[in-house]
User: Fold this.
Amino acid sequence: MGIEETEVSDIMDAHDKWVADNRYAWRRYRAAYEDRFWEEYDTQGTIGTMTRESMGPLRIQTNMIKPWVNSYVASLFYKGLRCIAKSDDIIRGDEPDPEDARGIQLLGDRFLATSKTEASAEQAYQMGLLYGEVAFKMGRNEPDKRVKDENPLDLIWLSVVPPWECVWDRKASRKDLRYIAHVFSEPAHQVLQRYKVPDEIKPGPKPDVVMHGLNYNPEKILDDQNYYRLLEFYDLEATHKVGKKETLGEYRVYILSQEGSGPPSLFNVHKGPMPYTDVSGRALPPIVPIVLDNTPEFPMKGLAPVASMYEINAEKNLISTFLANAFRRDIARVLLYKKDEVDEETLSAIESGQDMVMAGIESESIEGTF
Assistant:
């Protein structure tokens, strides 16, 4: 049957609301990682009526987030990832050749050993620790006829999808997913080269979703700031027909247009079969969800591992800030003097705070002056 377009619109509306609810937490975690803790920390919500002004002029921050995240990321490839390939112990067709399994294993090791794969894996792990959810997206580039003996593995690309671009049912289990999708912004000229876009849909700027949200709309200055918001939707319940051949699943591309509140408007610009299947012919979307830590009853709903560390880091920064301001306030020295016996020049010299400053006074004795 497949998922109707009205339901797809509701799915995107729910996703955008989920992003709006979570982006402030993502924003704080990212700021703490980038040594910008106080720029995004909500003092009003955390310490009651205490304001930034009453905390004092100093802001002390210690970055516990970056070392914690980087230590885990650094250990990811420390021992080196390896593939193990063997024939199924239960389901057997023709007797497999041991060299076939060895060949598959070597191909897997070669793919994991590339710098692009390692960089993508580290980026995914880093984002997973910060935000709780992330996804891999895989595909294959068409071979370039101008390149001789191009390695097929070099044609495979792997990208990392942040959580605000990952669309799936977070209350379902992985095996019960009805759909999975990727929503993202793409330059207008690239979209126009591939799809026929309705004239009523106008491109707009690409927002930093974590910092500004989805509805950020600064004044456009350059043409290359024009983007369309695309939705690549992989319907796992539908079937797609090409002639007389029917395949499981359907791949659809929508352009999203948001005007005012409510669900975004969808314009279908492509419909086709799923790009990949498994060995049994089941639909296989090219998006692989990665949930490092999840809510116990919802395996597809991620929890940010850095959240606990952030609260400890925030408490440490608060205590350090209060102590630093209190220390500077408590060590301040107050000098008492007789107004009529010390001139302004002498007072200015003392107030300068310089070491070994000379302050002369016209008096036979300084007793009783200070």
